[in-house]
């Protein structure tokens, strides 16, 4: 299979952790136990896990308004993320970021930027800093398909290209920007074809195949680290949840959703592991039990944690 068993099972566990985390958070919001709003990642887990597994601990990522999967894949703990969503001081951003702004610089994740394409110039700037400091580090910018029509995307990718910066641009094409289908926004069949306009490589991969994502990301990261410049990686996927927590997805055709559920990454990779004899059903259930227990411990910890003091609002403010 080209990868050892331990690595393959770690990929599965990380994807399952993201899926189960998101499912638990969904019900916490529906129950009214958690404040704020959420944009969830179910169905796209193979992209975050595949890309982040190709990175080193000192590499950095920028994220979007849908950041939970990226955060967990980059190494943020379930507990720090859950505390953040509950607005508690033990959260990764001390409860001040909330769902759309999670991050931890020590883990290599710039706090997520909810503005569409807002993370693209930030990742490009980080890559420029790595170049100036002569650090062998790489920046990755995750973005949705809607980001490729933003001016910030064009300007930042062009800058990364002309200066051959160590950055990888990852487009998570789930076919919809909120409720607008991609074919109503661009004429291209592949968004990766836009890379030609900047003189950099562009590749489109099956974003529901974690190994294809990983292998592609590894090559792009190695290329960037070697000083050969950026790569635009388009990962084709499908969001099997609403754009946000109040979205019933009525704009998604029923047959399209059914087919997407058959191709979703967690199910596919589980079948891959079972068929390859790397694990049995009991083993998969064991991993799920471990993951669910980890999440429940985080929920209990976050719900029991004290609320931040009002004066904490005046901390971390620059004037």
Please provide a written account of the structure.
With 319 residues, the protein is of the alpha/beta class. The chain has helices at 5-30, 45-52, 68-73, 78-85, 119-133, 151-162, 210-225, 254-263, 265-275, 281-304; strands at 60-62, 139-144, 167-173, 176-177, 180-181, 202-206, 231-236. The model has no long low-confidence stretch (mean pLDDT 96). A 5-stranded parallel beta sheet has the order 1-2-3-7-6, sandwiched between helices. The chain has a single domain (5-304), classed as 3-Layer(aba) Sandwich (Rossmann fold), CATH 3.40.50. It is built from 10 helices and 7 strands. The radius of gyration is 19 Å and the shape is globular. A hairpin with a 2-residue loop joins β4 (176-177) and β5 (180-181).
How are the elements arranged and paired?
Blueprint lengths: L4 H26 L14 H8 L7 E3 L5 H6 L4 H8 L33 H15 L5 E6 L6 H12 L4 E7 L2 E2 L2 E2 L20 E5 L3 H16 L5 E6 L17 H10 L1 H11 L5 H24 L15
Parallel strand pairs: 1-2, 2-3, 3-7, 6-7
Antiparallel strand pairs: 4-5
The first-level CATH class name: Alpha Beta
Structural class based on helices, strands and sheet pairing: alpha/beta
In the CATH hierarchy, the third-tier topology is known as: Rossmann fold
Q: Low-confidence stretches at least 5 residues in length (pLDDT < 50)?
A: none
- In CATH terms, the superfamily is Thiamin diphosphate (ThDP)-binding fold, Pyr/PP domains
* Number of H- or I-type helical stretches: 10
């Amino acid at each position: 299979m080209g990868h050892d068993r331990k690595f393959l099972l770690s990929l599965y566990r990380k994807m399952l952790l993201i899926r189960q985390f998101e499912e638990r958070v969904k019900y916490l919001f529906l129950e009214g136990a958690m404040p704020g709003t959420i944009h969830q990642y179910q169905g796209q887990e193979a992209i975050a896990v595949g890309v982040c597994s190709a990175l080193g601990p000192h590499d950095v990522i920028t994220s979007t308004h849908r950041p939970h999967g990226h955060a967990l894949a980059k190494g943020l703990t379930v507990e720090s993320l859950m505390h953040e969503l509950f607005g508690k001081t033990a959260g990764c951003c001390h409860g001040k970021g909330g769902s759309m702004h999670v991050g931890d610089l020590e883990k290599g994740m710039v706090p997520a930027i909810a503005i569409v394409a807002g993370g693209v110039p930030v990742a490009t700037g980080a890559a420029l800093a790595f170049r100036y400091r002569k650090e062998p580090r790489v920046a990755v910018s995750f973005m949705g398909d809607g980001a490729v029509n933003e001016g910030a995307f064009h300007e930042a990718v062009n800058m990364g290209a002309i200066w051959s910066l160590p950055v990888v641009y990852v487009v998570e094409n789930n076919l919809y920007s909120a409720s607008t289908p991609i074919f109503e926004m661009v004429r291209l069949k592949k968004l990766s074809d836009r890379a030609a306009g900047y003189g950099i490589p562009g590749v489109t991969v099956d974003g529901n195949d974690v190994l294809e994502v990983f292998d592609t990301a590894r090559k792009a990261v190695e290329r960037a680290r070697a000083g050969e410049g950026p790569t635009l990686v388009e990962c084709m996927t499908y969001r099997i949840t609403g754009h946000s927590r109040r979205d019933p997805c009525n704009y998604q055709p029923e047959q399209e959703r059914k087919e997407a559920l058959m191709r979703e990454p967690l199910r596919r990779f589980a079948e891959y592991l079972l068929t390859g004899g790397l694990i049995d059903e009991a083993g998969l259930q064991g991993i799920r039990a471990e993951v669910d227990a980890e999440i429940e411990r985080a929920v209990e910890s976050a719900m029991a944690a004290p609320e931040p003091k009002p004066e904490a609002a005046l901390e971390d403010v620059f004037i």
